[in-house]
Amino acid sequence: MFKRKILDELNKWKDKSDRKPLVIRGARQVGKTTVVNLFSKQFDKYIYLNLENSEDREIFESNLSFDKLLEAIFFLKNVKKNSGTILIFIDEIQNVSNAVTQLRYFYEKAKDLFVISAGSLLETLLDKNINFPVGRVEYLVLKPLSFEEFLLAIGEAPAVEMLNTIPLPDFAHKKLLGLFHRFVLIGGMPEVVKKYTETDDLLSINTIYDSLITSYLDDVEKYYSTNKNRSIIRYVINNSFYEAGNRVKFQGFGKSNYKSREISEALQLLEKTFLLYLIYPTTNINIPIIPNRKKSPRLQLLDTGLLNYFLGVNEDIFKATDINNIYKGKISEHIVGQELLSTSFSFLYKLHFWVKEKKQSNAEIDFIIQYKNNVIPIEVKSGKTGRLRSLHQFMDQSSHKIAVRLYAEKVNIEDTQTINKTNFKLLNLPYFLASKIEKYLEWMSNE
To answer: How far apart are CA 412 and CA 355, in angstroms?
Structure first.
């Protein structure tokens, strides 16, 4: 069992006076069940209900009143009602619609119990007009392991300590960059990381990538009932690996003849299951950051390790000194996006990038984030700062004078200027510090 940062969020939830039943969302096999099992060790009693199991499912399918339902759970799981703190985990809750309905009564009638639910295909319930009780539940999203979690999983606790030392000492840079390359190569899917820690063999994890991708394709049967729709979504899953990192158009996606609406619906459904993200651009240089859904989104997949395996670029990453040189820089952008996503467990957290699209002049910034009241541009680029033309266009318009560049070199603050002579400070950070950008902006302002 790996130490996951979401455990801190679960402890905050546990300590709330107005706690509601918690729904943990996330793609299949990102470790939801494992995390709750680890969290359960803090309780006096733990009741695990897996609704893929017929016996557990039958409890909720019997149409009992809530009081009788609760009595049945405690009786069948041989737990006394008043036996200290009790955590009830309802896994694969999407299999029984009544179980979803009962969550409101756990909140209204059994606030002394700690109730968590999870499921890999929760969003398919929306197609059946089954909704989670509004205002009676709360949500957290679990994603693949972050770089920091990966380091803990492979036994590199001293590296984690260095990762959280601000500013990073120069002597730690080379080792952390090497470990980050390993993370980029392997990715953050828990089963893959577990296999790697046990074998220290990169070839041994290939079969797990295969099984993960196959399981996602097999889930298509649960998404759609018609053969045509199954074919569309299978096509979209397969071609999403090739389109990852690109701005995509729904019409002709993956050089197909499918209609724009068909592709759009498939991509949106897969986004709800957290297999991919559609990152929409904005033209804003000030808050609020408003995505423009009329413009083409950029495609981000669940995990960079899966992407590498599907594309066959593993050997390139293994040999690389700078991941920005691989696959036209898309792998470096993708892993940075994955690290930025790992900083939040909120369902509402979205990635954004910035564009300026005119006939004579186009510009695009890889990512933007809100820091305090400012919109901070983030470029994932190697090379000289003079080549960051899109960044220069952003800074010429910006009211603040701070930008971030992620690259392979050491931490550095650079006083520079745009082609139009606008002065600004460029915070240069190695790729592996993508999740620490806000902390470094704070350090930079103090400096």
So the answer is: 26
Region 255-263: mean pLDDT is: 93
The answer to whether the CB of 244 falls within 8 A of the CB of 308 is: no
Closest to 405 (Cα-Cα) out of 323, 358, 336, 357: 336
pLDDT confidence tier of residue 123, bands split at 50, 70 and 90 = low
Residue owning tokens 């737990």: 79
Residue 96 burial (CB count, 10 A) = 20
Domains assigned to the chain: 6-141 (3.40.50.300), 147-278+292-341 (no CATH), 352-446 (no CATH)
Separation CA 194–CA 51 (nearest Å): 26
First-residue to last-residue Cα distance in the chain: 39
Cα(384)–Cα(268) distance, integer angstroms? 38
The pLDDT, as a whole number, for residue 384 is 62
Predicted confidence (pLDDT) at residue 120 exceeds the cutoff of 90 = no
Strand partners, 24: 118, 140
Distance, in Å, from the CA atom of 290 to the CA atom of 271, rounded to the nearest integer, reads: 19
- The predicted model scores a pTM of 0.94
The DSSP H or E segment spanning 64 is: none
Residue reference for tokens 């318009």: 397
HSE, CB side, 13 Å, CA atoms: give it for residue 233: 24
- What pLDDT does 126 receive? 47
Helix (H) or strand (E) holding 118: strand 114-118
With a cut of 80, say whether residue 124 has pLDDT above it.
Answer: no
Phi, psi of 15 (to 5 degrees): -90, -5
